[in-house]
Amino acid sequence: MATLPPDADQVQLLVSPRKPLRLLFVCVGNSCRSQMAEGLAQAMGGDRVAAESAGTSPGDKVAPKAVEVLAELGIDISRHRPKLVTRDMLDRADRSFTMGCDARDQCPAPWLGSSGDWEIEDPVGQGLDKYREVRDDIRRHLQELFAEEGIPDLLARRGGGRAARRRRGK
Prior knowledge:
By secondary structure, the protein is α/β, with parallel strands linked by helices. It has a single domain (19-111, 123-167), classed as Rossmann fold (3-Layer(aba) Sandwich), CATH 3.40.50.2300. The chain is 42% helix and 12% strand. It contains eight helices and four strands; from the N terminus they run αβαβααβαβααα. It has a four-stranded parallel sheet with strand order 2-1-3-4. The longest helix has 22 residues, at 128-149. The protein is globular and about 40 Å long. The model is unreliable at 163-170 (pLDDT under 50).
């Protein structure tokens, strides 16, 4: 009987790569929180994650301050566009999350069958510090989710976060 080398787990990953965890982040406008969650999830999870976001009533563009606070971490969502949530998106997601609903008549939570509502405060109309708070709150949720799923935080490995902001003098 053959014995496996000490790094058999790594060899096994090369032979049969894991299917990425498919995540869907949904809010009403898909212009801020869910877009930040998509960008963060993809940066943190790399090829172990396939993230997308959508809204029940998508806005016209991603909030410029959301783009700015993710750029502070080296994440570019400047080309993202708000999208309408579809049945196909829901069907292909392994886990789906709502960001918190202020507009109860448009809130996706009741029909989403989501893995949870993260109850993230909507920073629209507030300053950059509030956007940073929201970004960091989303990141904490993702770190907990990735720890449960055994997915390493690649953003932390490459120095994204407080240390990166200090280096840039923020």
